[in-house]
Amino acid sequence: MNFYKVIKRVIDFVLSLTGLILLSPLFLIIAVLIKIDSKGPILFKQKRIGKNKKEFYILKFRSMASDTPRDMPTHLFKNPDMFITKVGGVLRSTSLDELPQIINILKGEMSIIGPRPALWNQYDLIAERDKYKANDITPGLTGWAQVMGRDMISIEDKARYDGEYVEKYGFAMDVKVFFRTISIVISGTGIAEGGPEAVTKTEEEDDK
Prior knowledge:
Elements: H1 2-22, H2 24-37, E1 43-49, E2 55-61, H3 86-94, H4 101-107, E3 111-113, H5 123-130, E4 140-142, H6 144-147, H7 155-167, H8 171-187
Parallel strand pairs: 3-4
Antiparallel strand pairs: 1-2
Helix pairs in contact: 1-4, 5-7
């Protein structure tokens, strides 16, 4: 595992740097659209739990109004759509709001593949992940739990899937997660923004 961690970090750095360069025109277009659509910053920062439970700030394109509660999961809002901007709705449905996390990956705070970083106050999820040592590895842009249900599964199941990822940690597992993620992003399955259909124990503000 230790050898693959080194290789994985090299891959993460090279791909994130390449992606940042190639996608810079898209970043600029999205930034302009966000500023035209609503008042507030272009990027959304939120405190998350990283490797060994070290806190860091995850980056996203802002998809909600600037006065939206910062550390409340979207599925807990009675009407989350009232907070989501017009441009934000498109960004969230296509997962383009997650693109700035390329910077988190470049800095080493995240990996391309790994357990999605929990909110700093998701104590139940953090505790569940401790059972599987899922807090001991670098969190990812996408992970095994996301491709196995994303917003539609409970915290217990998410932690269990994260544990499976830790057990099967390696190149083959990362490739499987990568291609399943592409399929899910295209199909848009497993997203629950709020209301009675959303699982009441899901993990994050808008974990895609």
